[in-house]
Amino acid sequence: MATASSLSLLRGPLTVRALGFVRASNTRLPHSLPLFHRAIHYRRSYVSAATDEEASARLAAATADTGAPTIFDKIIAKGIPSTIVYEDDEVLAFRDINPQAPVHVLIIPKLRDGLTQLSKAEERHTEILGRLLYAAKIVAEKEGILDGFRVVINNGPQACQSVYHLHLHVLGGRQMKWPPG
Ligand code: 5GP
Question: Domain count of the chain?
Answer without folding.
Answer: 2
